[in-house]
Amino acid sequence: MSARQPAPDHIQPREFKFTKDNMDIVYHHINKYPEGRQQSALLPVLMLAQRQHENWLPRVAVEHVAEILNVPYIRAWEVATFYTMYNLAPMGRHHIQICGTTPCWLCGSDEVFRAVKDELGLTHGHVTDDGEFGMTEVECLGSCATAPMMQISTSNWDHYFEDLDYENTRKLLQELKSGKMPKIGSQKGRVNTEPMEGPTTLLDQQSDYEKSKKAG
């Protein structure tokens, strides 16, 4: 099943309504814009609908959002089908999105794909039988300096997992399978995008800073 193709009719729900708490969030987004410009809230309101509906957007949810924002249904559907952050079909409670663009590929994204296949039996566009995990290959996620990397999304959170290799990818997937939250960010311990061997510039100033911390 592809995240970019609508789910088949037999799993499309017949109705969708925002919860009361989520309607408050909808109005919060609408009120950010001048009167008559409520369609500007389309992206965040669609994302809110996706999060409420197990991390994917059925047709009735898109229709509901269009009705609330008073925009033509086709306008809302164009947005939902254009942006890859919207899933039009179930992609698992943990949607694994692996970057396969050139910097990640050069740094070893093939090994990340292999780890996901070995650990979960997943290839691009597929979901595990229990519905727990789904995987897609995506284009650049903007973290080239910490390649290879992937984003994992659920109904509650989206996080980057960076500096991946075969072993640490399998480890973080095993933690997710056991109900644990893996370490977010670099899986090799570096801070932000500093060199893997540690800082290489401003070493004197850093030394003075460390001395002041110890003295203080």
What is the secondary structure topology, with strand pairs?
Elements: H1 20-30, H2 42-52, H3 59-69, H4 73-82, E1 94-99, H5 102-106, H6 109-120, E2 126-127, E3 133-138, E4 150-153, E5 158-162, H7 166-177, E6 185-186, H8 203-215
Parallel strand pairs: 1-3, 5-6
Antiparallel strand pairs: 1-4, 2-3, 4-5
Helix pairs in contact: 1-2, 2-3, 3-4, 6-7
Brief overview, please?
With 216 residues, this protein is α/β, with parallel strands linked by helices.
> Which strand order spans the largest sheet, edge to edge or round the barrel?
2-3-1-4-5-6
Rg, Cα atoms, Å:
21 Å
| Strand segment tally | 6
Classification by helices and strands: alpha/beta
SS summary, helix count: 8
Main sheet characteristics = 6 strands, mixed
Query: Which fold name fills CATH's third level, the topology of the largest domain?
Result: Glutaredoxin
CATH superfamily assignment of the largest domain? Glutaredoxin
| Level-1 CATH class name of the largest domain | Alpha Beta
- Terminus-to-terminus distance: 58 Å
Order of helices and strands: HHHHEHHEEEEHEH
Strand % is 5-15%
Per CATH, the architecture of the largest domain is: 3-Layer(aba) Sandwich
**How many domain regions?**
2
